[in-house]
Amino acid sequence: MEVLWRSSPRSAEDILAEVGPQQGWQEGTVKSLLNRLLKKKAVKAERDGRRYLYAPRLTREQYVSQESKGLLDRLFGGRVAPLVAHFSEQRKLSKKDIAELKKLLQELDDEQS
Fold first, then answer.
1. Which of 45, 39, 33 is nearest to 1 (CA)?
2. Is beta strand 10-11 parallel, antiparallel or unpaired with respect to 51-56?
């Protein structure tokens, strides 16, 4: 998606040329990913001769929101607290991370009061 947000429309071959070497991806991997993104309606495809050109349907913010909700629902029953607990157990939170979480919780608490 990052490639498409930077510059689109792009062909699968263009995408492969940009991310393939650094990700170790083959053409089939890129095409599978594009098909999954098409099914999720995150990208659109337009025929251009014998190939397709792909462009994002969603902004980065919309995509991140959609994917985060899906992850939260699938892995944590839609609850945020177990997600934060999981990440705090897996990776030590810095003092800055903890301060940001406290601030966010305070803001949420203030909104609900």
1. 33
2. antiparallel
